[in-house]
Amino acid sequence: MNQELYQKFITNPEIKQNWPAALLRDGVISDLLGEDIHSILYWAGKSMARKYATTNPADLITFFEQSGLGHLTIQSENKTAIEWLIDGPIVNARLAVNADADFMFEAGLLAQSVEQQRGLISEAELNKKSVKKGSVVITVHIDPKNTTDEFETVAPFSVISNRKEQPVEQEPMPNQPTNEAVDQHQDQKTK
């Protein structure tokens, strides 16, 4: 498994930069935590959601991907549950090497994020892994009758979007020639 995991990450330019995290997560941490890995990673995911509190699903999706956890999409949603699909090259590589790869960190992160965003007690469960499709489905169950005030006490985290912004035209510095002046100067030199 170790050689295969290494090769899956290092030979894929799209996820090569994520190799250090995969090494720690699927190598070191799983050895350290042993049979307690699921509950500890779930708790760790909830803890990270408190530290990096997103204010809406779009920011959560962006943050999730920026954190190297995979591509996150909402499959279905109602007042008592949200079904999330996690896929992408990172998830695919982890599942291809280990069909029992742990995704409880992601489950905890999603549960706590939804709880904070909605102000309702929420917990998550890992529904299914599809090794063939390289995806994981996590359902966050929401208790519409059980509110929490945690969303009021957690400072929101500002997610930086990857959207490309249009360059802003800047005024020339004082005593600096404009592009038009430089072009005219170049034209005069060639005459």
Please tell me about this protein's structure:
By secondary structure, the chain is of the alpha+beta class. It has one domain (2-162): Trafficking protein particle complex subunit 3 (Muramoyl-pentapeptide Carboxypeptidase, domain 2), CATH 3.30.1380. Helices cover 47% and strands 20% of the residues. The protein has helices at 2-10, 19-33, 37-51, 57-66, 89-97, 104-118, 150-153, 179-190; strands spanning 71-78, 81-87, 120-130, 135-147. Helix 1 runs antiparallel to helix 2 and helix 1 (2-10) runs antiparallel to helix 5. The longest helix is centred in the first third of the chain and has 15 residues, at 19-33.
Largest sheet: 4 strands, antiparallel
- CATH level 4 superfamily: Trafficking protein particle complex subunit 3
Strand content: 15-25%
Tally the helices. 8
Classified by CATH, the class is: Alpha Beta
Give the quaternary arrangement of the chains.
single chain
Mean pLDDT: 84
Structural class comes to: alpha+beta
Number of DSSP-assigned strands: 4
The backbone outline, from C-alpha atoms, is globular
CATH architecture: 2-Layer Sandwich
Rg calc: 23 Å
Termini separation (Å)? 70 Å
Helix content: 40-55%
Low-confidence regions = 164-179
Order of helices and strands: HHHHEEHHEEHH
CATH topology category name = Muramoyl-pentapeptide Carboxypeptidase, domain 2
